[in-house]
Design a protein that fits this description.
304 residues; MetI-like fold; globular
């Protein structure tokens, strides 16, 4: 068959056009790698300067964090404790509600109900985080103080509630996609054996989508760890090592914001705490993402 006569011959300009697009895509991928390497290099360089003056052991296990006040102390445990308190509270709200919403959308909702509810859930993801922070400060906190008068104006509970609302759309959307990826043949087989809709949802569909569900949980927790503005406004700026959610706490991201606004002169050890805390936060989020990848590889279900 004559390729030239059939009109299938590739024109020279078409080949160069395709190579150009390929090159642009390669540059985009390379740019993301270069940016990541640059961030790691800056964090490592500045953090190493900090750790030449402050022992790593004191930084990681010290229980007093006052780098801007005399006498200075650089124990990051209060910041880690505040971050974990917010993450635990937001997970207790966002994960069960998000999973329940996903089960309803994928297993029970009609097409009309799904078309209404899912966009409303996704709207929550588009609200600026600073709005969530002021919502917590002006609505949730007064409500909590009405119920529990001992609640501080800035507290971890209200911050946890708004962060839980923020991660809810992520959990619901990712879990819904994972549940809908489970083949209908598994559902029909369970129904043929006499299972109820609830039994099908909890004993067939959810276990079949377990890898995607757990991965969505880990990603949501990573999102909660990295939340900044809402937590800064609602939880306050007190590096308090406590398990009481009604007290003010400070997270790692909130401290980074306070230093970045000019509270410490550039080049000082106080300023370099920004990079030390940022490096620790980077390691924590990286570990969370690696755990999510490992879970996906370990429990991933592949359906034909």
């Amino acid at each position: 068959m004559d390729v030239a006569g059939s009109g299938l011959q590739r024109k020279p300009w078409g080949r160069w056009h395709e190579e150009g697009i390929k090159g642009i895509m390669f540059l985009c991928a390379l740019l993301s790698v270069v940016v990541t390497i640059g961030i790691i290099a800056v964090l490592a360089t500045e953090a190493s300067t900090f750790f030449r003056e402050v022992p790593v052991w004191e930084f990681l296990f010290g229980t007093r964090w006052t780098p801007l006040l005399l006498p200075r102390s650089f124990g990051v445990v209060p910041l880690i404790g505040g971050t974990l308190l917010i993450v635990a509270g937001s997970a207790a709200i966002g994960i069960p509600i998000g999973l329940a919403s996903a089960i309803y959308l994928s297993e029970y909702a009609t097409k009309r109900a799904r078309a209404i509810i899912k966009p409303i859930l996704e709207i929550l993801a588009g609200i600026p985080t600073v709005v969530y922070g002021y919502f917590a400060l002006t609505f949730i906190t007064p409500l909590l103080r009405t119920v529990i008068p001992a609640t501080n104006i800035f507290n971890a509970a209200s911050a946890s509630i708004v962060v839980g609302i923020m991660v809810l759309p992520m959990v619901a959307s990712l879990c819904d996609d994972a549940l809908r990826a489970v083949p209908d043949s598994l559902r029909f087989g369970a129904y043929a054996l006499g299972a109820t809709p609830m039994e099908v949802a909890t004993r067939v569909t959810v276990p079949g989508a377990l890898s995607g569900i757990v991965a969505s949980f880990v990603l949501a927790l990573s999102r909660a760890v990295g939340e900044t503005m809402a937590v800064t406004i609602a939880a306050g700026a007190t590096p308090n090592l406590t398990l009481n959610p009604l007290e003010s706490v400070q997270t790692m991201t909130a401290y980074i914001v306070s230093v970045a606004t000019g509270d410490a002169p550039a080049g000082t050890v106080e300023y370099q705490t920004l990079f030390a805390v940022g490096a620790l936060l980077f390691v924590i989020t990286l570990a969370a993402n690696l755990i999510a990848i490992r879970i996906l590889r370990r429990f991933r279900e592949v359906y034909d």
